[in-house]
Specification:
heterodimer; A: 170 residues; Aminopeptidase; 28% helix; B: alpha+beta; eight-stranded mixed sheet
């Protein structure tokens, strides 16, 4: 697609849940995350309406519809400088800059406002688009986790990737 | 020291009067006072991700109603006086949903018992639970990179280093890297 999307990044609101149900219906969204298929709408609604206290949720909106979602799960205590990131984009809008827009905002929020110096994530090793996107934003592979999760009947490996804030890099 | 694990009758020899006996068993609520002393030992706090100056009731609440996916084993030794002492704790947490074949393991030992048979007996028991009773395929343990003796100990028991986590946690004023080790059921690593 050559047309550039007009993407708005904002905090997640409770009434975004129906759009998020649609995102989670995406086959490759389920495959590339740790989500389960056949989730109840009620479960998803409840999760959107009652996010955990340690989570910061961002959404990407195009023409008034939420088509992407990113969560930061903040660690505590001796790991309060660190957070775990997870994201997903509606299959119809992948490869069009939505992931980049979400990541750019999340890194700004984490590093410049929450004072976080380590952002970590896991990505399945065969998700080449995901790995390339994270590389572009300064995430480095820290290792390969064997048989990390189960997917469509088989065990799959994942990379552990992390981005350190600039002054923390050696 | 004599080893006895009454739950699985893996007793080595017969306990002899006045010889200390090592027992590996499930955590019991009346272990709490003993366990609190272990959990708050400065060396153990340092090498964990827990904070010093712990509030006893907060920690106690955690152990007084263990979630169904959290399995706690203790290593107990009897002293010549006849009293007993908790010298080690292994916590195995089984993960949910698409990671339900996996678990995370944390084992702590009192500094006086880092060597000898106690650490291996406790780890052996928790791995038996994981392999033969929970059917877990993948066990993870995370250690600070400079805990080299302990990393070697885990490697001797089938764990392999998979990742180095930079700036994993703050420890006594400095951010420390950690090693993530994993043990896959033998023969299943491809």
């Amino acid at each position: 697609m050559t047309e550039t999307l007009s993407i708005t990044i904002r905090g997640q609101n409770t009434d975004d849940w129906e759009n998020i149900v649609e995102i989670l219906a995406g086959e490759n969204v389920v495959a590339n995350t740790l989500q389960l298929p056949y989730q109840s709408r009620d479960t998803i609604q409840d999760r959107v309406e009652n996010p955990p206290a340690n989570a910061r949720m961002l959404v990407a909106e195009v023409d008034g519809t939420v088509i992407g979602l990113l969560g930061l799960h903040l660690h505590q205590g001796r790991q309060a400088h660190a957070t775990e990131l997870g994201m997903m984009v509606h299959p119809d809008f992948q490869g069009q800059g939505v992931g980049s827009a979400l990541l750019e905002a999340a890194i700004d929020l984490a590093e410049n406002w929450l004072n976080i110096s380590r952002i970590e994530l896991t990505v399945f090793t065969d998700n080449a688009d995901g790995v390339a996107l994270y590389h572009k934003f300064g995430f480095e592979i820290e290792g390969t986790l064997h048989d990390y999760a189960f997917r469509a009947g088989e065990y799959v490996d994942a990379y552990l990737m992390a981005r350190l804030r600039e002054e923390s890099r050696t | 020291m004599r080893l006895s694990t009454p739950e699985h009758s893996k007793r080595l020899g017969t306990p002899v009067n006045n010889l200390p006996t090592l027992t590996i068993r499930g955590y019991r609520s009346d272990d709490w006072d003993n366990l609190f002393a272990l959990l708050t030992h400065p060396d153990i706090v340092r090498d964990s991700t827990r904070l010093p100056y712990a509030h006893d009731e907060t920690l106690r609440d955690l152990f007084s109603s263990l979630p169904a996916n959290l399995h706690c084993l203790v290593a107990e030794t009897s002293l010549p006086s006849g009293r007993t002492r908790i010298i080690g704790l292994a916590e195995l947490k089984a993960l949910p949903r698409r990671r339900r074949h996996a678990g995370t393991l944390q084992q702590i030992m009192h500094p006086d018992y880092h060597t000898g048979e106690a650490p291996a007996a406790l780890l052996g028991a928790v791995l038996d639970l994981a392999d033969n009773w929970l059917g877990l395929r993948r066990i993870e343990a995370t250690l600070y990179v400079d805990q080299t003796d302990l990393i070697a100990f885990y490697e001797q028991h089938g764990f392999q280093a998979e990742a180095t986590l930079r700036r994993y946690a703050l420890r006594a004023g400095a951010y420390c890297d950690a090693v993530l080790l994993a043990r896959l059921l033998s023969g299943e690593r491809t």
